[in-house]
Task: inverse folding
């Protein structure tokens, strides 16, 4: 057996690309010693297990770098890529975990996929954490890793353990007592973290912890004492956590880099949280006025400070301001997810600040964090190329598409160790083309043979050099139009059409390059118009309310020249059975105050939940309460599928409570409480607590005494703290039982208004235009732009705010006629727009 090595080099000014050297090298310290074929020379054979038909092991001291190792056994060569570099643990809360709450949030990407590895071995997740398909959401960390790899010329790996919405007390309490202050998952958030600093440390070693936390504690700070514990200050909680982590991993010098972070809802707390973080980092003077430099490992010289070293100064992220943070409810707290470059790129600023904190030389000894910290080395043997290496972070095929107008395609992927992949173009199960390639970056281009005709295919990309795991993604749809040919098509959206029991008017958008027409016999409760055309068109569907307790459907046929006919089904839900008890919901403080007009919760004509003068003749103020297990579903009395739920599925103070289609989600269910904490001085009052977060309830915090905002388009009902709900009458509800109205209809305005208009200005344009539309508050939709081949050139998820506008800027390559469409649960609106360059 013999082994030989090649080394990867980082190329490009931004450090995101790499190449493999052509010559064999000696990765060991000292002078090179190579045989003629490039294999390492040894004074005596280091290989253990030769001839025993078992695993062969050997040990080498290797310089930092990214390598390809070739093992030649009995003439058979196997290869594996591996790195010797830096391994860092990410801990803290949502600004460390990453923000993906809206479904279209973006990260800075994976950067250099060869030199930077992002791992997520968490077994439990907080509701706000990136998880499932978003588990490997890299946030800004891979941007930091790419900068570090270029600076250090070694690979960099991250292990994600951060836990959204966590306070420092949650971390300490779960570390010492096995249960946090506010989370139900046993041992979390410390449990995930401990697994990395013990199990993962044993396999790969660790340099230290990057701690980005403090925003949650800002809302609970009173004179440096955390309200969650009432005893320990932030600094004592964090200091205890560091001690516990070092004890669990058996490494007293384990380094912690502590960010100075407290920004929550636009409010910074430099005198409370940040000052406490700085006390843990340490000072160079007895008075505690001079904070240590970046990279200074010494214990604090402040009078009364502990004698703990290797606690490093991290970045001051409260300086990330303005549009560099998100806007909306509970913001600005999180770094921005829209701008990925320029002055408004909050993730860019976070990555750059962390880079400075880790690489700037300290005035203490002219060395940085890496020079002044001692890593905890791995204690286990690392597996070599006896078989395919295991991609612990999975293989993720992120996107695949044709290169416009060319006989080639491209795909983007993320993987921990895929230095060779095989791509295959599939028509069902039939292989149309396939080849192997060695990626030079996260995006690769491949040629499509002339024998492949236009059609919809599946691109499968599988790593040859490593295996995936249960979360790996290998396939993506691939639409191909062969240059010089016409691919006839008819695309209809939505497909199929699902209609609620209330019925209404809906629109089917037809996107085609041929003649088309609809055939079939409509059901008695449905009608279709504008059922033929050429190219782009809109079919109008009118559905009568379903007053029966059975669902129903009708199927028509979409026909077209040169395209096979396809069925199109319209399905309508059954009417609600109307169970439960109906009530008026009055604000308790107005109910029990004489001389004032009582105020009640209602739904206005725009579908907005408001507080208005109590009116027993208004059916819009009647609400139905039904039991779902131990919880309550609160819906409109006239439509049991239109319920109160938290916008965006959130559970934070200030989040809007809006009308939503019922799905059974936790954010649509409420725990009813009428304890003495609620009814003292408020007989007959109740509060409703969020199922997923019992520390919040819904109430009316807006206006005078909670009587709401004057605007008819502003939802008045928001999440408030449970402790405030026990105190304030505008967060409590006095209910009066009333007979439930019959039927399941909602107002005609609510049915038709969201689909009533879509306007584009200006038209024609040079690729920049404004789209104006109405979408009922809280409702979800997708705004998209496609060219005449059906290719999506712009897409954005939108949340209803009533009348609203979106500014669209198309890529410079887009020109000609495009279709702007708004897709909602009620149908699709579309407008044809001419882009001239």
Result:
């Amino acid at each position: 057996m013999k082994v030989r090595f090649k080394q990867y080099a980082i190329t490009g000014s931004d450090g995101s690309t790499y190449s493999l050297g052509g010559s064999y090298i000696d990765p060991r310290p000292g002078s090179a010693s190579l045989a003629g074929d490039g294999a390492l020379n040894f004074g005596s054979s280091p290989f253990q297990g030769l001839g025993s038909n078992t695993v062969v092991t050997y040990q080498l001291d290797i310089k930092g770098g990214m390598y390809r190792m070739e093992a030649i056994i009995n003439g058979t060569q196997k290869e594996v890529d591996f790195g010797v570099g830096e391994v860092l643990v990410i801990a803290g809360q949502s600004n460390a975990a990453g923000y993906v709450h809206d479904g279209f949030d973006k990260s800075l990407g994976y950067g250099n996929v060869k030199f930077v590895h992002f791992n997520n071995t968490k077994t439990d997740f907080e509701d706000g954490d990136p998880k499932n398909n978003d588990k490997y959401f890299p946030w800004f960390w891979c941007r930091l890793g790419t900068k570090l790899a270029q600076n250090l010329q070694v690979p960099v790996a991250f292990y994600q353990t951060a836990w959204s919405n966590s306070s420092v007390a949650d971390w300490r309490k779960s570390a010492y007592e096995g249960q946090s202050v506010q989370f139900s998952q046993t041992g979390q958030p410390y449990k995930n973290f401990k697994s990395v600093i013990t199990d993962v440390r044993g396999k790969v070693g660790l340099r230290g912890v990057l701690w980005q936390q403090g925003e949650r504690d800002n809302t609970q700070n009173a004179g440096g004492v955390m309200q969650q514990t009432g005893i320990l200050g932030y600094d004592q909680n964090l200091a205890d956590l560091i001690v516990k982590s070092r004890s669990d991993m058996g490494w007293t010098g384990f380094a912690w880099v502590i960010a100075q972070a407290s920004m929550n809802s636009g409010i910074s707390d430099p005198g409370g949280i940040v000052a406490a973080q700085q006390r843990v980092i340490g000072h160079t003077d007895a008075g505690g006025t001079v904070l240590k430099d970046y990279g200074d490992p010494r214990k604090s010289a402040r009078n009364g400070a502990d004698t703990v070293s290797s606690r490093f100064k991290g970045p001051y992220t409260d300086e990330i301001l303005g549009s560099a943070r998100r806007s909306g409810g509970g913001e600005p707290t999180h770094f921005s997810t829209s701008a990925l470059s320029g002055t408004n790129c909050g993730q860019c600023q976070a990555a750059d600040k962390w880079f400075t904190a880790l690489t700037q030389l300290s005035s203490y000894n002219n060395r940085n964090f890496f020079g002044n910290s001692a890593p905890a080395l791995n204690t286990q043997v690392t597996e070599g190329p006896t078989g395919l290496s295991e991609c612990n972070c999975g293989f993720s095929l992120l996107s695949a598409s044709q290169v416009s107008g060319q006989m080639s395609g491209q795909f983007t992927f993320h993987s921990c160790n895929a230095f060779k992949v095989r791509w295959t173009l599939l028509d069902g199960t039939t292989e149309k083309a396939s080849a192997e390639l060695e990626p030079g970056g996260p995006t690769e281009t491949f040629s499509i043979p002339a024998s492949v005709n236009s059609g919809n295919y599946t691109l499968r990309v599988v790593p040859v050099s490593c295996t995936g795991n249960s979360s790996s993604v290998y396939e993506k749809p691939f639409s191909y139009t062969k240059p010089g040919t016409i691919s006839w098509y008819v695309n209809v959206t939505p497909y199929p059409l699902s209609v609620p029991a209330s019925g209404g008017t809906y629109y089917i958008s037809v996107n085609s390059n041929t003649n088309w027409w609809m055939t079939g016999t409509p059901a008695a409760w449905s009608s279709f118009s504008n059922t033929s055309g050429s190219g782009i068109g809109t079919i109008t569907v009118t559905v009568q309310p379903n007053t029966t307790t059975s669902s129903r459907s009708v199927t028509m046929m979409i026909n077209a020249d040169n395209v096979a006919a396809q069925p199109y089904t319209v399905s309508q839900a059954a009417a609600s059975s109307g169970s439960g008890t109906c009530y008026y919901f009055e604000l308790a403080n107005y109910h029990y105050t004489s001389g004032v007009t009582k105020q009640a919760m209602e739904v206005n004509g725009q579908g907005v939940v408001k507080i208005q003068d109590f009116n027993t003749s208004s059916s819009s103020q009647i609400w139905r309460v039904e039991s779902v297990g131990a919880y309550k579903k609160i819906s409109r009395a006239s439509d049991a599928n239109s319920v109160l739920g938290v916008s965006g599925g959130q559970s934070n103070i200030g989040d809007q409570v809006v009308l939503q289609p019922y799905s059974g989600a936790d954010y649509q269910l409420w725990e009813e409480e009428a304890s003495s904490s609620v009814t003292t001085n408020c007989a007959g009052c109740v509060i409703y607590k969020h199922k997923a977060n019992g520390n919040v309830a819904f109430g009316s915090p807006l206006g005078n005494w909670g009587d709401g905002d004057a605007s008819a388009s502003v939802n008045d009902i928001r999440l408030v703290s449970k402790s405030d709900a026990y105190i304030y009458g505008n967060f409590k509800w006095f209910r009066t039982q009333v007979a439930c109205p019959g039927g399941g209809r909602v107002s005609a305005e609510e049915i038709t208004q969201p689909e009533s208009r879509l306007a584009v200005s200006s038209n024609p344009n040079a690729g920049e235009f404004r789209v104006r539309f109405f979408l009922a508050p809280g409702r979800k939709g997708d705004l998209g732009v496609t060219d005449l081949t059906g290719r999506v050139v712009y897409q954005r998820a939108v949340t209803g705010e009533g009348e609203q506008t979106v500014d669209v800027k198309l890529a410079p390559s887009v020109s000609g006629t495009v279709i702007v469409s708004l897709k909602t649960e009620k149908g699709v609106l579309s407008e044809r727009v001419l882009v001239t360059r």
Q: What stands out?
A: The chain is about 15% helix and 35% strand.
